[in-house]
Design brief:
Elements (H helix, E strand, L loop, with lengths): L9 E2 L23 H8 L6 H9 L3 H16 L2 E5 L1 E5 L27 H12 L5 E5 L8 H14 L4 E4 L2 H11 L4 H10 L2 E3 L10 H7 L6 H13 L4 E7 L5 H18 L2 E8 L15 H14 L10 H4 L1 H6 L7 E4 L6 H4 L10 H10 L3 E4 L6 E2 L5 H4 L11
Parallel strand pairs: 2-9, 2-10, 3-4, 4-5, 5-6, 7-8
Antiparallel strand pairs: 1-11
Helix pairs in contact: 2-10, 2-11, 3-11, 4-5, 6-7, 6-9, 9-10
């Protein structure tokens, strides 16, 4: 199949209408207290918020993995995907002061940075030579960059390769651009950005939707309703985006379920989310350093519950930057069907203290996927399977040390 949008070749896959659609779990392996929920999952019935809360409180991680794997198998077969992408943070200068954020800075701060358009274009051009299909760009809410700067940035990056997908900006960045920089409606701002190259929105900034949590964690940031509004408008314009959840800080299990509920409801309305990408809070260098990091068990439980509850999402991504590649590999047995991408230069989590590498090679990603018993497949920004051979430079890259330690 040829995509009119990018010219790349894709394998069309609809596992819900294939042999995988008949996949059924072994209910005898599920404990009695979870049997009613498992039967719903097996019969493709939507689980409730109360069901999700019960799953979060369960200590039977194997049962959660069985249910989540049934959903993954039904939707995606044995495939596990990755993307060749490059992260670019154009600046960390930000007018906000979110309590959890170790990335943002004021202009006079020692760790403040602002990259030039020439520098960004050169970095993307270099990455295109090794086969990236996506550049992922986000930054702080910069107080002085002008409308023309953002438009030129997108225009020049897009001009490098007509097939490259520019996935850029969080919902709060879009609101900042609309209200303070472009002085236009959100829809008109998104249209202006799309016209010069914006291909997809990122899912960042969702954090936890609960108002009390947001007031304590990121006071002054957009509300849940405002975050959802940006994505709703973009979806109504025909755009696609991912969505996220930052968990493992001060939120309750009930607040996690409510976050998932709101995402599922918007997906019911628009079908515009391509995938869900939860990640854990990094407590090392912020004023919330006293918060205990989420355990491996909690991360696997959260992924499994998300996969079971978000029945209208096709894809669940394990963000290896946050959880480490070894645990991300294990998560392929807990509902995950995607290991994100090569990334190449991640700053936000590493400035908060993450000890994981800043990039992965294709060889490493394919190796851990095969070790987990899955079939590795390169994807694009919309989770479509790519059939184009990988560039030699990337395909023959050596397996990195992240396989040895997290």
């Amino acid at each position: 199949m040829l995509s009119f949008a990018t010219g790349r070749e894709y394998v069309h896959h609809e596992f819900e209408n294939s042999q995988h659609a008949n996949f059924s779990m072994n209910l005898s392996l599920i404990p009695s207290d979870l049997q009613p929920i498992a039967e719903k999952v097996d019969n493709r019935q939507r689980i409730s918020e109360a069901d999700a809360l019960q799953l979060y409180r369960s200590h039977d991680l194997n049962a959660l993995g069985i249910m989540a794997s049934a959903v993954r198998e039904r939707k995606n077969g044995n495939a596990a995907t990755y993307i060749l992408n490059r992260y670019v943070n154009y600046s960390n200068i930000c007018i906000l002061s979110c309590q959890f954020c170790a990335f943002a800075a004021k202009k006079r701060d020692a760790h403040a940075f602002e990259r030039s358009i020439d520098d960004i274009v050169a970095a993307v051009r270099e990455s295109l030579a090794v086969g990236i299909t996506e550049v992922h760009m986000v930054g702080g809410l910069h107080p002085t960059l002008k409308k023309d700067w953002y438009l030129e940035l997108l225009r020049r990056v897009a001009a490098l390769d007509p097939h490259l997908i520019i996935k850029a900006f969080t919902a709060i960045e879009i609101r900042h651009l609309a209200q303070r920089i472009f002085k236009m409606s959100i829809a008109d701002t998104l249209a202006a950005l799309r016209d010069v190259g914006l291909g997809a929105l990122t899912g960042g900034g969702a954090e936890i939707f609960d108002a009390e949590v947001r007031d304590e964690l990121c006071r002054g940031k957009e509300s849940a309703e405002e975050w959802l509004e940006v994505h709703r408008i973009w979806h109504q314009m025909g755009g696609r985006s991912t969505c996220t959840m930052l968990y493992g800080h001060i939120e309750t299990l009930e607040q996690r379920v409510d976050h998932l509920r709101q995402l599922r409801e918007l997906q019911d309305e628009t079908s515009g989310f391509t995938g869900f990408v939860p990640f854990t809070f990094e407590p090392q260098t912020t004023i919330l350093a006293h918060v205990k990091a989420a355990t491996a068990v909690e991360q696997l439980r959260n992924l499994a519950v998300s996969r079971i509850y978000l029945d209208n999402f096709d894809h669940l991504t394990a963000y290896w930057v946050s959880m480490g590649l070894p645990l991300a590999q294990v998560s392929l047995s807990y509902g995950v069907d995607d290991l994100h991408g090569t990334i190449m230069e991640e700053k936000i989590f590493h400035m908060a203290g993450a000890k994981t590498p800043q990039e992965q090679t294709v060889a490493t990603l394919e190796h851990v996927i095969r070790e987990a018993g899955r079939d590795p497949i390169q994807r694009d920004s919309f989770y479509r399977h790519l059939t184009r051979p990988l560039p030699v430079a990337n395909a023959q890259a050596t397996v990195g040390p992240e396989l040895v330690c997290a």
